[in-house]
Amino acid sequence: MLMDDVVAQARRSTSDGDARRLAELFDVYTLEMYFGIPNAELGAMIAGIPDDELRRHPRALLAAVTFTARDAGEKLPARTLRTTPWAGDEPELWKRFAAAWRQRRIGDVVTAHQEMQDLVAAIPTVTMPLDRSNGSWALILGQAGLSAALAGDFQEALTFFERALLIPPAGGMHFLVRGSHLRAALVHAMCGDRAVARLHQEQAASVPRSSSWIEEQLDAERDLVAALLAGPADVSAAFDIVLALSFQNTGETWPLYIDALSRLGTMSRRSDEARERIQLLRSTGLGGFAGVGFAGSVFGQTMALDALYQDDTVQAGLELDTTDRTHWRSRILEGLLTLVDGTDPQRAIRIAEGIADQTSGLRQAENRRLGLLGFAQFQSGDEAAAVETLSAFAGGVPPEIAAVLDALAPRLAALAAELVAGWPAAAAGECDPLDAPALRQSELRVLEELAQGEKRAAIAEALFISENTVKTHQRALYRKLDVSGAVQAVREARRRGIL
After folding, report:
1. Which one of 51, 182, 254, 311 has the largest count of C-beta atoms within 10 Å of its C-beta?
2. What region does 17 belong to: left with phi over 0, alpha with psi -120 to 50, or beta?
3. Which letter does DSSP use for residue 124 in this model?
4. For the segment 187-241, what is each residue's pLDDT rounded down to a tens digit?
5. Contacts of 173 (CB under 8 A, 6+ apart)
6. Computed over its alpha carbons, how large is the radius of gyration of the chain?
7. 257-288, pLDDT tens digit by residue?
8. What is the 8-class DSSP label of residue 440?
9. Closest Cα to residue 61, out of 42, 80, 43, 79?
10. For the whole model, what pTM was predicted?
């Protein structure tokens, strides 16, 4: 039976007060019921089915626990599941799926990912002309992919999405295919292969629409993919698209939305707007378990990068402490922090070399690693090695990496524009290097003292700060003004009208 027919029968049974027929529909057409009926209406339907009727229909009972956990939890004690007569492997599969889904919903994305990995082992790995599971396998694989992405295991997420796409849609549930295409496109657009992302984008557009409530959420994911795949000339318009998206419609893919805000804000030189939106969303309590997986780290990661743009290395370190410090995204930020702080470029080189296994197979992630390595080589004085590394980007020079280096390492960006084929002209300093980022008030005060000819100890005493803090502000000034000493900094500041 097609999903629309199932929904019509369910509503008729509810209207007629036929709880047995409603339970039977849940038992046989679980996915059609869940995806065809809005959540609030679905919860009310389940709440109206007596306990004894649910016990006679195991999948209906499990649907109550899986899809309306709160209502079902209040209505049915945990022991009910243990005393329900099950037959065969499929009910056991659904019980384990329900447990993994609940873990993800409370924010423990890593545990959910681990449990989904075990579930996937029970699903055939070959293409089938018909789906014997009536959509269950495609759903589980798609949800396993989403769990993997939220946990930060992007390689495995792509594997699960591709496997889900081998299973033909059942009962008119084409949205399962559309969802797997769009989520694969999102992961590829964020850290994988942009060309493959475009292929999934095109294939998703060819999938017939259904009447499911999830289509609206998939529309938001479609728009997010389009924004992430925008060319350099369209990046500001792409950022506007992301700002205009209804955050609620991004559903569980919200961490990718946060990452898109940060990336497109940087590339369009609108970091202030990105920061304001990200801070607003962070204040709502999103983030799952802090430091757990991608979902628990994305706020800290994006705000650590933002702090680096503002030369606030202390805040960048604090933000990094809220993330999974072992993940390649956080490790790259740790390397950037080391370089911006000017302490140990060799440590940044070791970090870049140490995460090669994590970024392998993810083209854009590998390019970010190479960007860090090139920056570190440049800071260590090996300009030839830096140029060679920055010339090795797969698929050409990534505009987002060029934008990051333009903000954090303008001298390297200028060198790359001269020597690296295809380096984006806009990233080489189309506007004054001081424009991004601007000098902070504390840096201006140090600059004014330098203009008076004061030395570090006297400046520290005058401004009631430590000499180390003065040194940190000096490093930031020299980098932003693209100079190497105090005299040059004062001269350049006067040339620009800052002093």
Report:
1. 182
2. left
3. -
4. 999 999 999 999 999 999 999 999 999 999 999 999 999 999 998 889 999 999 9
5. 3, 31, 32, 35, 135, 138, 210, 212
6. 27
7. 999 999 999 888 888 899 999 999 999 887 77
8. P
9. 80
10. 0.81
